[in-house]
Amino acid sequence: MRVLAAMSGGVDSAVAAARAVEAGHDVTGVHLALSAKPGTLRTGSRGCCTVEDAHDARRVADILGIPYYVWDFAERFTEDVVEDFVAEYAAGRTPNPCLRCNERIKFEALLDKAIALGFDAVCTGHYARLEVVDGRPELRRSADLDKDQSYVLASLTREQLSHAMFPLGGSVKSDVRVEAQERGLAVAEKPDSYDICFIPDGDTRGFLQAKLGARPGHLVDDETGAVLGVHAGVHGFTVGQRHGLGIEAPAPDGRPRYVLSLEPVSGNVRVGAVEKLGVREIVAERPIWPSGVALGGEVECVAQVRAHGGTSAARAALVDGALVVRPSAELRGVAPGQAVVLYRPDPGGDVVLGSGMISATR
């Protein structure tokens, strides 16, 4: 097959490309330039897409003996990921930019261009397994559960997954680094990027404040309605947050308060006891079925509401086009704007059934 290997400049995408070459595919490497100012998007292990990363990817391509290109996707990334991120926070929701990047950039913009140029598949360094069962793609958790990225890939469609390759799905990260060393790849010890790539200093609140400005509102006790303090905007908070609330007085019972809900129209941030964070029902919009098979009636599943953690056995069904999920145990810190991903409960709960964007909780 003709394979386009997305090469970030890190160890995972480097080894994924190497494995694609070793498997006998006709591989071309491509680095996505996602920033109009590439020198500003890395601080140590934070961020990505710098000139340094592009050079690291090129050196790997040279060792592998494959063609290598840099494609400028900065404008698309700004519109579909960065601006979406800001708009979601302004609306009182908590987005996952990695999920949006996979959906809109790597497996929409990049894949569309790859297919137009005659490539059969896009290869990435994601930790997830992809198998074909009865002619349909089946997205599964990675063998390395600590690195599993099936949650942020669960918004991909059957058509997109049919043109995807995840060579690292059956490996653990420590083995990938050893393999990179054995292959003579200089990125073998390069630190992993983490947090939000376009906020390299890790100050999400400061980034949003610079984009949205001050939108003052009140911190309100959910039980009594009393005003407990003021804030500069609901975009500085997320459901389940405990620290940095700016509350001016302790609770009468001395217990900490948590963010329960955000009201962007009134500007209120409602806070209360941790028990009030418990969620027994999740409603999600835009359901997506990676295998192409929608739920048929109510099904048992495992629901996950965060990229790492936040799982529970659950029952789920389609109701008037929305995904309604009822966890068997209360889930806490479930925020609108995040994704809920459903996994088949047996064996091991590792096959993705579907996903949706959380719009409401009860």
Description:
The protein is α/β, with parallel strands linked by helices and 362 residues long. 25% of the residues lie in helices and 28% in strands. Strands 14-17-16-15-18-19 form a 6-stranded antiparallel β-barrel. The mean pLDDT is 93. Belongs to the MnmA/TRMU family. It catalyses: S-sulfanyl-L-cysteinyl-[protein] + uridine(34) in tRNA + AH2 + ATP = 2-thiouridine(34) in tRNA + L-cysteinyl-[protein] + A + AMP + diphosphate + H(+). It is found in: Cytoplasm. Residues 280-358 form the tRNA-specific 2-thiouridylase MnmA-like C-terminal domain.
Topology:
Blueprint: E1 2-6, H1 11-22, E2 26-33, E3 42-43, E4 46-47, H2 51-64, E5 68-72, H3 74-90, H4 97-116, E6 121-123, E7 128-133, E8 136-141, H5 150-153, H6 158-161, E9 164-165, H7 173-182, H8 204-212, E10 217-221, E11 227-231, E12 258-263, E13 268-272, E14 282-288, E15 299-304, E16 311-319, E17 322-327, E18 339-343, E19 352-361
Parallel strand pairs: 1-2, 1-6, 2-5, 6-9, 10-13
Antiparallel strand pairs: 3-4, 7-8, 10-11, 12-13, 14-17, 14-19, 15-16, 15-18, 16-17, 18-19
InterPro entries: MnmA-like, MnmA-like_C, MnmA-like_central, MnmA-like_central_sf, Rossmann-like_a/b/a_fold
Binding site for ATP: 6-13, 32, 125
GO biological process, one term: tRNA wobble position uridine thiolation
